[in-house]
Amino acid sequence: MQLPEIIKIIIAEDDDYCRRYIKDLLAEHADFEIIGEAVNGLELIELTTKLKPHAIIVDVEMPDLDGMTAVKTLAGNHEFPVVVFITGHADFAVEAFEISSCDYILKPYTEDRFQTAIERVRNAIKQRNSDLEQLSSFIGNFNKLYVKTKFELRFIDTDKILFIERIKNDTLMHCCDGTTVNIPRKSLSELRLKLDSQIFFRSHKSYLINLTKVERILPWNSSTYMVKFQGSKKEAYISRSNVQNLTNMLEIL
Length: 253
Description:
Mean pLDDT: 85
Number of helices: 7
Number of strands: 15
Strand content: 25-35%
């Protein structure tokens, strides 16, 4: 089971020296990227909610709001990251593992002890991904698309999808309710195999459209047509080379 290419992590530590030490140790791991730093529990909640890291390293004792309370607050979020607690007291260990923390490090700690925690983070993320993929392999039909994101397996009704778009390295699913879902590491070709080919049409190298949601098709330029969807301002495109395929498919005269 593959890990993400980069494991995004937030550090929550109010002591400047301790925070720099953690950053120095993480710098030895090319697959980890620090995307935020917090000095109290309130900042941790705000950053985690906004940035959605894969993991967080949290000092239990911090001002304004302690790390344990902050993590308990975040635990109600479906995008709950892998958690490593760091503290000078063993008193919170049972509480930490009750909320499924990955590791619990007591200060002062050695570099080797920290590296053990980092490996546990990798293993925890790997296990999450494995569990989600196994679950998705047990279920499957053309009426639902099962999308594995960083933290969850989402069940999406295919009739709620307007179109799927490939932009650089991202695959984005645009839904009827206006939301957009990022589908990690999936190409349009892979997704096309999971969808009803009578409904979802590969209109362009970058687009897979739901024909039941199309309202209008308009000329756009010399090589492309624009697709308008019912009840949406979003747009997709059909390459001129695929227009004839669509015409044949729909038996347009």
